[in-house]
Amino acid sequence: AYQKQQDTLIVWSEAENYDLALSFQEKAGCDEIWEKICQVQGKDPSVEVTQDLIDESEEERFEEMPETSHLIDLPTCELSKLEEIADLVTSVLSSPIRREKLALALENEGYIKKLLQLFQACENLENTEGLHHLYEIIRGILFLNKATLFEVMFSDECIMDVVGCLEYDPALAQPKRHREFLTKTAKFKEVIPITDSELRQKIHQTYRVQYIQDIILPTPSVFEENFLSTLTSFIFFNKVEIVSMLQ
Fold this sequence. Notes:
Elements: E1 3-5, E2 9-13, E3 19-23, H1 27-41, H2 58-69, H3 82-92, H4 96-108, H5 111-125, H6 128-143, H7 147-153, H8 159-165, H9 178-185, H10 197-216, H11 222-225, H12 229-246
Antiparallel strand pairs: 1-2, 2-3
Family: Belongs to the SMEK family.
Protein name: Serine/threonine-protein phosphatase 4 regulatory subunit 3B
GO molecular function: protein phosphatase activator activity
């Protein structure tokens, strides 16, 4: 069990009576390592301790065990099931264990790409209700805070459809035109010629993901703030990679 203290300390014990601590100069550095530890242990980075040190009754512990043994069953990915999928995604957000399981199920079944195919169908059919459900679903999947899912969602193949889904916020009278902005208005200015296609792709991806975080996603509530920590890390590591490639 790791414990975060005073924003810049991570402490833990190895063997009996052998305590270790990592001390950070900056809170940001501490948060970044804490996120990694929490990610490996399947915890929400908002926790102060990664494993429960408090005594929980034996009964509660056994109640949780069967749940961890199987994945969440996803509804078939089809138009008639969008409402059910949206309900499922939003219902797991309050439980770290269920979020972890949903993320695994989405990953194992290549579900995100299937959802984005449904998005294209809904747009062609002008199915507003379906598009509103897809907004909830994609936003909920972002809040699962999983780097492996981000790799899929932010790939060249998928990112514009993800942005498309996020245009259809049910709270808005008219959908936003984010794709139009990203493809037509935003211009890529090369201060130096960039010939490496992988580097160019990374720059485009980072700009778009940053746009999703800063412009598209509503300001998160206190409840949601921690759900986007991996998104912040994703952008940060992309920037590190871009600088390394330039060097």
